[in-house]
Design brief:
This protein has one helix spanning 131-135; strands at 15-25, 30-39, 44-52, 58-65, 73-74, 77-83, 87-100, 103-117, 122-123, 142-156, 159-175, 183-192, 195-204, 207-216, 219-232, 238-247, 252-268, 275-287, 290-301. 40% of the residues are buried. By secondary structure, it is mainly β. A hairpin with a 2-residue loop joins strand 18 (275-287) and strand 19. The strands form 2 sheets. The protein has an 8-stranded antiparallel barrel with strand order 1-2-3-4-7-8-10-11. It has a single domain (15-301), classed as AttH-like fold. It is built from 1 helix and 19 strands.
């Protein structure tokens, strides 16, 4: 079965189908995350792409265009399915904003990356049903996750980097209202090609939903509960976390993570009355004596 398809869309204005990828090359200390989202009922394609480079440099890009086709491409960013649920190709060529030492400038950037999936697709419906599905209905109730390995080439100005790192991808469809949650926490970490975790804690006005998986011994084991204690800096931004994860086999996993670098991405409602800030943190994780790296994403509604 091919889950990597575009689905028949509903009639809600904020009905969305999106694809997201991240990866971290530890040897070169380069982290990337990017997303393409289609909202056909408002004739909108949106995309973003960020690179967290060594020594704190950030490369940032956002694009938007009419959704007059169903290609997974917007402006300069393109995702190509090579083999369903197995291989993707990601590429970009254009100008990005370069943020370095408090100054901003424009830099020519291009990349070509092959993403190879390392586990079976995980469906959040293995964790969510009944009342939890109802609580989640404004945040894309259909949600698939998969971790993998990214290899390719990045060019920044006159500099070239060979990329090789582990990462995560997700594919979601349904209503997507960025301002509906009070907070959502989405955590991914890859400890190796055979060990990874994915955690979501969604806090809505109607309640909380926990979801995700631990990948152990070649299997995705669904989570049943995630207790997360976040530490905050002086600006009330997440700087670390400790959590206990309970899986469907009854095992409990202790995890801690520390944020290394971050980007903050704003999401305002169409009427401007609501604003949520997405804190996308590159984080170092520890679990069961293993060390890994991934994303610690916090979307926080500020008004």
């Amino acid at each position: 079965m091919d889950s990597d398809i575009l689905h028949e869309f509903g009639d809600h204005p904020e009905w969305n189908e999106s694809f997201y990828f991240n990866f971290y090359d530890k040897a070169r200390d380069i982290c990337a995350f990017m997303r393409l989202g289609l909202k056909p009922n408002v004739n909108e394609k949106t995309a973003f792409c960020f690179f967290l480079m060594p020594r704190g440099t950030i490369l940032a890009w956002k694009g938007q265009e009419p959704a007059d086709n169903t290609e997974l491409a917007a402006k300069n960013l393109r995702f190509e399915k090579v083999l369903a649920e197995k291989k993707w190709h990601l590429d970009f060529s254009g100008a990005m904003e370069k943020r370095e030492g408090g100054a901003t400038s424009s830099e020519r950037v291009s990349f070509s990356v092959d993403y190879e999936c390392l586990n079976e697709v995980f469906d959040y419906r293995d964790c969510i049903s009944g009342i939890n599905e109802k609580i989640s209905e404004k945040i894309a109730t259909q949600h698939l996750e998969q971790f993998g390995r990214a290899r390719g080439m990045l060019t920044v100005g006159a500099n070239q980097y060979v990329l090789d790192g582990l990462g995560e991808r997700d594919h979601s469809w349904g209503v997507r209202d960025w301002n509906a949650p009070k907070i959502w926490i989405w955590l991914t970490c890859q400890f190796s090609e055979g060990s990874a975790l994915n955690v979501t804690k969604l806090v809505m006005d109607a309640g909380e939903v926990d979801a995700g998986f631990i990948h152990i011994a070649g299997k995705n084991v669904p989570l049943t509960k995630a207790e997360i204690e976040t530490s905050w800096d002086a600006n009330r931004e997440p700087k670390g976390l400790e959590m206990k994860l309970e899986d469907k086999k009854g095992a409990v996993h202790s995890v801690r993570a520390d944020a290394m670098r971050k980007v903050i991405v704003p999401f305002a409602s169409r009427d401007g009355k609501s604003l949520s800030l997405m804190h996308e943190n590159l984080a170092r994780y520890e679990m069961d004596s293993k060390v890994g790296y991934g994303i610690a994403e916090y979307l926080i509604r500020t008004r």
